[in-house]
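Batch manifest line 418
LIGAND: nicotinamide-adenine-dinucleotide
JOB: complex structure
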Amino acid sequence: MSQAEKIDPFDVALEQLRITAELLQLDSGIYEILKQPRRSLTVSIPVQMDDGTVTAFTGHRVQYNDARGPCKGGIRYHPGVTLGEVKALAAWMTWKCAVMDIPFGGGKGGVVCDPKNMSIREKEKMTRKYASLLHDFIGPYRDVPAPDVYTDPQTMAWIADTYSQRVGHMVPEVITGKPLSIGGSEGRSTSTARGCVFCIREAAELLRIPMKGASVVVQGFGNAGANAALIISEMGAKVVAASDSRGAVYSNEGINAQELVNHKAQTGSVVGFKGSKEISDEELLGLDCEILIPAALENVITAKNASNIKAKIISEAANGPTTPEADKILVEKKALLIPDILANAGGVMVSYLEWVQNLQKEHWTETNVNERLEDNMVASFKEVWTTSKNNDVSMRNAALMVGVGRVAEAIKTLGLWP
Ligand code: NAD
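JOB STATUS: finished
ARTIFACT:
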């Protein structure tokens, strides 16, 4: 596309940090530290493909800051992965873990590849090679990866196994988002979406929008987006449109989220869903609705389309879907935007619970996990809301003030040594 895709997400992350540093009147030395990741590793991952040829994939892992604990963040497989994107995602993970007040720093990983056109065997070989190249970089007390776009519990299992084989015993706590059979947590696969919907519920209550019957648009019908559609439907809201990388569908009557999940599982896309009309991505974003959930990739809501958005609540299940220029437009329009580092923090919250269960050799019930998730999401939402009101700033700036402020405090307490 477009302009939008050319925006370097790390420039967006740095602009957000600059604004936050001003709001917090951050010490200039700490600002200097926070402008760069602590460590970045780029690796070449040679894989013998099914046809016998060798492809060398490029992979990155960035540890942005670990002042508050081990780095934490997903691994993305996508043709558009760049070091700038991984750095941005790692910075956002740092602020996100601090917003949730969990004892993690922030990291992120990515491999430049096209997983949709790779066999399972090729994906396994690439994943295991990437994991073995990262062996000394990651670890349960150093850097704990998790799933992100186009990686899933199976990918996490291959990484756990590759890491553990070199250690000599099973180390489930090296990674989260694992299958239940090897120490995954109940509730992890739906946690990002569930946390996002808890935030929407809190926002809707403040704006006096009844959840029952509220119209919802989901951009990006993957793990986060499809589960958000299912969970919000259970609360009585009406999903009217959804999209994925192949197109967007709309129905004024409402779309049955479970049937759409089944349709996508059978056909590979939301496109062609019975009773729906195909619309363009831009039409989807501009639909008249109460709630918009961007749940795909970065830089989707830009200066070009933000003024067309009619949703009253925008909850960023995706990381970085809104550019800083678009942020300003949405604030002027008085849309309530729940920023990514709060809206999608349910994933890392339950990843934290998974890590704790692994370290304690425990397995908690789904009810227990979901209750802790709800308590923490609601508490963080309220804290960000209050910060926003007390400082007369947007929810994005308030969340960044809470997150960056906590990281800055940890750096200050540790001091610079030597
Ligand atoms: P996923 O791979 O399960 O789903 C991504 C979806 O986005 C797919 O359905 C894909 O078709 C769709 N998509 C891709 N390009 C699109 C486009 N141009 N227009 C519309 N749809 C498009 O990935 P996911 O895990 O659901 O992650 C989605 C977003 O949520 C990412 O920004 C990710 O960083 C963020 N996130 C995920 C988690 C998690 O636990 N999975 C946690 C926090 C944040």
